[in-house]
Amino acid sequence: MLEIIVLPLLTMVTCKETRAAIIALHKNGFTGKDIVATKIAPKSTIYRFIKNFKERGSILVKKASGRPRKSSKRQDRLLKRIQLRDRSATSAELAQEWQQAGVSASARTVRRRLLEDGLVSRRAAKKPLLSKKNIRDRLIFCRKYSEWTAEDWGKVIFSDEAPFRLFGASGKRLVRRRKGERYHQSCVMPTVKHPDTIHVWGCFSSKGVGSLTILPKNTAMNKEWYQNTLQQQLLPTTQQQFGEEQCIFQHDGAPCHKAKVITKWLGDQNVEILGPWPGNSPDLNPIENLWSILKRRVDKQKPTNSDKLQEVIMKEWVAISQDLAQKLIESMPSRNAEVLKKKGQHCKY
């Protein structure tokens, strides 16, 4: 009789169904020993289920009481609205404002409620301030090139200037340390009041990195310097990477880039310009990502003086692979699409 009853029950896998099967056998007069012999569950589990059933008269698991929740769903929604009004408000400030609405809760409880709604505290992303004109220009640019494929963007040479500083000031550094090691020499990032800064100009395309030049000290970034840089650095790069094939040059709207003499010179050289480039739009320029990668690599070398810094910059620049450069160029269609989707606002790049 036991085998007939148990056979279909052995296929049950969930805890709830196993509990029901054990109690069903118990109600039919089978002893705990008989039920253990079926191997439907561990011995201790079977006897615990039977004991609980005898004490409570039910197979349902008793719900733990726990501490009562301090806020209702309506109050939780109010907290969410308060946070979304001011994203930078701290949990302590939110707790005070929530208390005015009748909810006495700690800052820790506030954080838990916000976490339930997917609102997590994170460092704010730093992005250039976008004016209405910037947003309009970004949309015009992205619509103009919305049909371009990665192959089309592969014909563009992107360029920009960038600063590099000594002692890791170019970027952030994370370290892993034990308790008490916060100020250990290997866990700190040295700083100086007036770190040496080196300015560079560089360009790249899907074919790899192009020329990189370091701006001499006490040299202004003016139209004379820029024209000389284009003559000495850009033209050799276009010849080396594209030969007689027509390519397109990108630069932003810096004053020295927009000078009439520069525009005329580029026209005389038959250099086609991408744009007009929208202001405050580093997220649309893949060379910004290249600078970030280069700065991390340079910082890892820990140069200690300007000469060493220049040497490391040049070394790490030529070490950048064509695959990396091509991947950055291939991201352009996605950048354009995301800016259009966000109606001209910042994209994730």
TrEMBL record:
Residues 156-309 form the Tc1-like transposase DDE domain. InterPro entries: Homeodomain-like_sf (IPR009057), RNaseH_sf (IPR036397), Tc1-like_DDE_dom (IPR038717), Transpos_IS630-like (IPR047655), Transposase_5 (IPR052338), Transposase_Tc1-like (IPR002492). GO terms for molecular function: DNA binding. Gene3D superfamilies: Ribonuclease H-like superfamily/Ribonuclease H (3.30.420.10). SUPFAM superfamilies: Homeodomain-like. Pfam families: DDE_3 (PF13358), HTH_Tnp_Tc3_2 (PF01498). Residues 77-145 form the Transposase Tc1-like domain. GO terms for biological process: DNA integration; DNA transposition. This is Transposase. It comes from Cyprinus carpio.
